[in-house]
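Consider the tokenized backbone below.
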């Protein structure tokens, strides 16, 4: 082990302690920046110490929850698992995570790694980490409809997957047309997963759907079922492209509120304490990773049962005699999924919706015009628009015909208004973009309603 790597670990650890002392919370990547400055090969060297190997999770939506599921599966082996935290999903975040569990001798004290990585960083991450499996969840456009962006992302992912070591497996969502296309060009066959339950799918695409054309001939794809966004059972009417045959198929999907789901995978009944169709994908994906690594179906199912929602994602708590659920949504597909599921499965009637426009949220909020806020109209009683762009949100809601409260940019005041309007014993939903979720959690911690996320 080169001295330089040990020095990088020590420097990174010192930076980590310093940022904790100065009150920077979880999710920081700064120790990773410092360590990579000292030794640019630090992550590559530390990753070699993982006796089991590493799993990389990428895609637009669901990375954090699915990484948690994979983490739980591996931890039960039993194994020591290193994982990067939510919001630190660049190569620096992965490096920071590895440093945190490395000894000052520059050796990693973990058997397995689970790293959530942005699509754009995937080639570098695959090169440095040399993972056993790469999971690609979905490719939705993030916030803005930038022409050709999905195709560019698909090509970046394809390039990374071509670089996978010989024994490694690409675990791909067959239900996503762009992933279906990129995976069918790989030299080695990927492991395809998807949902196969036409009863649970919709018949038409929501209006935020963004991959509706055949990547080969440009014709409009036909969907026999749509599960989330543009993910479903698709085929080209010209017969040159269709969803790849599923190796792992999620069948007999059962959803109960936002608290539970069950489905049949490979004949194995799998249950999880997570709700919504999008989580059925996350569970199926994590199960497929377990299978790709050679784990037994019954064992994987047992482990998946133990996982609760990740912080700020369907996080539930009780306070002032009322029940609350935090829902995170970062783009039109995410918003449509959580709106639909919370209304249909959890009979949501009261919402605080917080929209921010900081860098992590996307600074242009025009994407809210692609969210089907009309879903709120028939049954929802209270909507409090909040966040930095509360006024834009209020305008969007007005056009959707949704009767909303006056916009309240201040989250604390918006929460107070929601409390006034929510009787004791009732359930309210807090639907936020990413930075609004962080602000809201901080506010709830100050009020003593939640624990800070880095101490649990
Ligand atoms: Zn076609």
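A designed sequence for it:
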């Amino acid at each position: 082990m080169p001295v330089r790597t040990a020095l990088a670990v020590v420097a990174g650890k010192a930076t980590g302690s310093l940022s904790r002392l100065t009150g920077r919370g979880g999710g920081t990547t700064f120790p990773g920046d410092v360590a990579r400055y000292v030794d640019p090969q630090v992550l590559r060297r530390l990753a070699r110490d993982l006796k089991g190997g590493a799993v990389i999770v990428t895609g637009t939506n669901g990375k954090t929850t699915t990484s948690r599921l994979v983490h739980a599966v591996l931890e039960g082996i039993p194994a020591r698992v290193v994982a990067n935290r939510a919001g630190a999903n660049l190569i620096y975040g992965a490096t920071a995570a590895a440093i945190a569990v490395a000894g000052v001798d520059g050796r990693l004290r973990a058997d397995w790694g689970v790293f959530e990585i942005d699509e754009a960083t995937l080639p570098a991450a695959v090169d440095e980490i040399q993972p056993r499996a790469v999971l690609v969840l979905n490719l939705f456009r993030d916030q803005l409809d930038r022409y050709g962006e999905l195709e560019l992302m698909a090509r970046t992912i394809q390039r990374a997957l071509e670089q996978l070591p010989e024994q490694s497996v690409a675990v791909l969502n067959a239900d996503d047309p762009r992933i279906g296309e990129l995976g069918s060009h790989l030299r080695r066959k990927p492991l395809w997963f998807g949902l196969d339950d036409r009863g649970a799918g919709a018949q038409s695409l929501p209006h935020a759907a963004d991959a509706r054309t055949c990547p080969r001939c440009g014709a409009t794809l036909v969907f026999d079922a749509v599960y989330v966004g543009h993910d479903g059972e698709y085929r080209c009417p010209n017969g040159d492209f269709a969803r790849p045959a599923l190796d792992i198929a999620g069948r007999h999907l059962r959803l109960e509120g936002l608290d539970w789901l069950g489905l049949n995978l490979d004949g194995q009944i799998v249950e999880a304490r997570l709700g919504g169709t999008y989580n059925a994908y996350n569970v199926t994906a994590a199960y497929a990773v377990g299978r790709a690594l050679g784990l037994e179906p019954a064992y994987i199912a047992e482990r998946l049962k133990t996982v609760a929602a990740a912080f700020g994602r369907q996080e539930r708590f009780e306070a002032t005699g009322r029940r609350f659920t935090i829902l995170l949504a970062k783009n039109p597909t995410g918003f449509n999924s959580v709106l639909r599921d919370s209304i249909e499965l959890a009979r949501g009637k009261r919402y605080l919706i917080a929209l921010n426009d900081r860098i992590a949220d996307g600074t242009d909020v025009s994407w809210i015009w692609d969210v089907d806020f009309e879903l709120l109209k028939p049954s929802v009683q209270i909507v409090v628009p909040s966040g930095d762009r509360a006024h834009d949100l209020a305008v969007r809601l007005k056009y959707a015909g949704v009767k909303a409260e006056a916009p309240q940019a201040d989250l604390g005041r918006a929460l107070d208004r929601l409390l006034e309007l929510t009787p004791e014993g009732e359930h309210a939903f807090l639907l936020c973009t990413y930075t609004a979720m962080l602000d809201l959690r901080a506010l709830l911690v100050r009020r003593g309603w939640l624990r800070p996320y880095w101490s649990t």
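The first strand starts at residue 53 and ends at 58.
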